[in-house]
Amino acid sequence: MAITGAGAASGAWPAAWPGLRLGAAPQAGFVVAGALALVLALRAPTGLAVLGLAAFGLLHNVLELRYVAGRFAVVLAGPLLRLLLALVTGIVVCRLLPPSAYSPYSQAAEILLAYGLLAAACWYGLRGRPLLLAGAAAVLTVAAAGSLSFPAYHFVVLAHLHNVVPLLFLGEWSRRLARGRALFLALQFTWVLLVPALLLSGLLDGLLAGAAGAAGQAGGWTARLESAYTPPAWLASHVGLRFLAVFAFLQTMHYVVWVWFLPRYAPEAAEGFEARVPALRGVRAWVLGAVAGGVLAVLFAADYAQGRALYAAVASYHAYLEFPVLLMLVLGAAHKGAPARIEEKV
């Protein structure tokens, strides 16, 4: 089944595709990937987080941007796209500042720019509903004040939230399923919510590598990653290792979604992107991601801190653009556009 016409370019696909069934293979793929990711997150959370980032970090950046730009072309277009890109570029500049210049002021600037993205999405999605727009503005103001007051918590939440957002994209994708949607969503909720809750509960501490030791025995990389992905109030305890395991697990499954599932089972999004950016047709996007990832891996090996800082800056585009898109998806503004035409191909 394929979608053609104006709807393919606008992202206005129907809520369900008649007769579309997912089959057992992708369901089994999520189960196998989740089980393997959980085992690795328990036994080698630091290695999984670092090596996973080096191997798939930039590749999944490229493929995620391709999907979002193709699937939600009706949102990421025109003046709004230019505004969002300007705001994210401001975040990139903040992150590229040398360590001596990256101060609480630059952190505050990044936080304000991030909330500017959400404000732009609210304005676009709620322009005709002034009461809801005022309510959204009030919520964003309170949230921004909290983030500015507790920036360390803001960035920890942001790191984990980025790995959770595929749940919303997968939920939106699943609307096309005629059968099997409940099972598909159950699998997604399991790896996104239930497995992290199980890890954080401490029930798997007996299997968690290093959990029985003192925090000071952790390696330098482990301690550094724990501080990045653990709320500051819990850094003094072994809970930090649980948060690291959660991050490593979710990051791996995040890559499974963007590198395997959506490129394979949502090819029309890639087609929509290629219509906008012909230079990245076919395998060219994969080659770009793989080559950039190889360069990043070399930089990681030479200077992990510098490589991580560069990646954090470059990754801002895919990490931050997804939030306004998802917000407008929730507000119902992500599917405004021309109707799609469905064709059966045999």
Count of discrete structural domains: 1
| Backbone shape | globular
Approximate strand percentage: under 5%
Structural class: mainly alpha
Summarize the biggest pleated sheet: 2 strands, antiparallel
Main sheet: which strands, in order across? 1-2
Number of helices: 15
In N-to-C order, the SSE pattern is EHHHHHHHHHHHHHHHE
- Roughly what percent helix? over 70%
Outline the low-pLDDT stretches: 1-19, 212-218, 337-346
Describe the structure.
The protein has 346 residues and is mainly alpha-helical. 72% of the residues lie in helices and 2% in strands. Residues 1-19, 212-218 and 337-346 have low confidence and may be disordered. The chain has one domain (2-343). Helix 2 packs antiparallel against helix 11, helix 3 packs across helix 12 (267-276) and helix 3 (45-71) packs across helix 15. It starts with a strand and ends with a strand.
Write the layout of secondary structure elements.
Blueprint: E1 2-4, H1 6-10, H2 24-43, H3 45-71, H4 78-96, H5 104-125, H6 130-149, H7 151-164, H8 166-173, H9 181-201, H10 220-229, H11 239-265, H12 267-276, H13 284-302, H14 304-314, H15 316-331, E2 341-343
Antiparallel strand pairs: 1-2
Helix pairs in contact: 2-3, 2-9, 2-11, 3-11, 3-12, 3-13, 3-15, 4-5, 4-14, 4-15, 5-6, 5-15, 6-7, 7-11, 9-11, 10-11, 13-14
